[in-house]
Each structure stands twice: as structure tokens, then as C-alpha cells.
Amino acid sequence: MSTVYDCGRQDSREAGLAAAAGAVRSGRLVVMPTDTVYGIGCDAFDSAAVRSLLQAKGRGPDMPVPVLVGSWTTVDGLTLSVPTSARLLIEAFWPGGLSIVLPHAPSLSWDLGQTRGTVMLRMPLHPVALELLREVGPMAVSSANRSGQPPAATAEQAREQLGESVPVYLDGGPSGEPVASTIVDLTGPDPLVLRVGAVPVAEVSEVLGTEVSVAE
Length: 216
Fold this sequence. Notes:
By secondary structure, the chain is of the alpha/beta class. The chain has helices spanning about 10-25, 45-55, 75-80, 85-95, 125-135, 155-160, 200-210; strands at about 5, 30, 40-45, 65-70, 100-105, 120, 140-145, 170, 180-185, 190-195, 215. It is globular and about 50 Å long.
């Protein structure tokens, strides 16, 4: 049985965040608003929960799940190292619509899919998402839709696609234009934009002081 919590009302928001935190800690899934599209998420360190997330979406491990964080400093504990280019992008665009791919710390016991030793990180600009992330820690979060279907811009759209596979839905109102984050890969010798999204490539290039290529 899934429950939708209206985060526009203080009492419902508090109850929803408590229910969502409890669900994440017990290895279950939640749907939450972000500044781009609605996301389906779970504890990033719970491999069984991540498998449940992929199953709910109808997706395989060949498309690894990104990780959302609630603060800049969390990145240091999740990655092998944080290069200057990453810190510049974090300071310029976090919280916001920019995802960064970095080598993950080899000591971490997580299974986000076929990551080839990397992790995609983002800090969302949404108060509900940030409050939950700061309560439970890093979460594996993907767009709240069935694979191949349009991303959800509302909690209701997410529920129509994901149904009872998710016990807790946090309704933060419409997300606006459902634009995904821009993804910048910093694992190679030069920064590479893997996906053009909410943050223009020109702004990424300006912050890094070099023209950034876009993957074909």
C-alpha cells in the first residue's frame, strides 16, 4: 500500500519526510521531488534496494543509478579524489542541475550497477529532497518513470507508472519543465559532457576556463 504525502502542508510534509526516512532505512523505495524531474530513490549502500529500484523501473544494471547528496562535503567520502575541476563545478552549480561523474572510493561497499569504478553525483536544489538526503545520507536516485516512458513531472505521474512498488510518495508540486541534469564526466584527461540538460555547456566551459566537448 503506497501513501502520497502533500509536502505543501507542513504537517503532511513532516509526516512524509519521516515516512520516507523510515522507508529508506528499511531498504524500501521512495519517490521525491527534485529541481529537475521526480526521482525514485533508496539507500545508496543497500544493494538489494538498488536492485528493487531497477526492477521498479524495468531497467538493468547496464545503466547505473546516480547518487544524490545533501551537501558538498559528502563528495569527499564517496570518491577516490575530488579534482579542482570538480570543486569548481560544485561551487558554481550545486545545489542545481549538474551531475558530475568521478571515480568512486574503492572502499565503498555499494552496487549501483555496471559503473566501471565510477559514480555520478548531484546535489539537487529542492528543499524536500535536501531535507531527506541530510536525514538519511546519500541516496541512489533515478528518474521516477518506467524505462522508456517520459520522466515524471508530478508525484501523480510517478505513481501512475510505478504504482505499489513504491510505498512513499512525497508530493512537492509540479517540477516545471521536466529537464534532466547536465552530466559532466571528469574521469578522463579532459572534461566531457555526456548529456546536455539544465546547465548550458557554455556555462560549464566558462567555469572550467576551457571549451568542454560534448559526447556524440
